[in-house]
Input
Amino acid sequence: MLLELLDEAFDKKSWHGPNLRGSIRGITAQQAAWRPGPDRHNIWELTLHAAYWKYVVRRRLTGEKRGSFELPGSNFFTRPSAEATETAWKADVNILIAEHRKLRAVVSKLAAPSRAQAHTIRGIAAHDLYHGGQIRLLRRLYPR
Output
């Protein structure tokens, strides 16, 4: 059940509409880099933020030490770090996909998750949905 919840929030069909991966599908680097205002996060940053927290949850479930995330830093990563290229955007989307797969692999091996583990897994699924909704809103606000 937890694995299904995790997948529906990320990339499997769900009743509520677009999930996180669906929310970023078709986004260009230019759209991902656009900010709705000064000091506001963009789609690109929210995408990496979601990837980072999948990494944190995986680390919590496995006891893995901190420091193995693909990018230096934590939580929010300023993006684009240079020019907003499609290659750079796709590379960062691939970090999100890879972190989801790693987290999914860990969750799939939990024979009987503890109450705390289940709480954490439900939380990361909710996190995906929350930021997926934010991204959908930013898509609507993007000037055409």
Q: What stands out?
A: The longest helix spans residues 115-141. The chain is about 60% helix and 0% strand. The chain has one domain: 2-141.
